[in-house]
Amino acid sequence: IKTSPAAGLILKAAGLQKGNALGRKTVIGSITREQLRQIAEYKLPDLNSNDIDAAMKVVEGSALNMGITVKD
Question: What is the distance between the alpha carbons of residues 8 and 72, in angstroms, rounded to a whole number?
Answer without folding.
Answer: 21
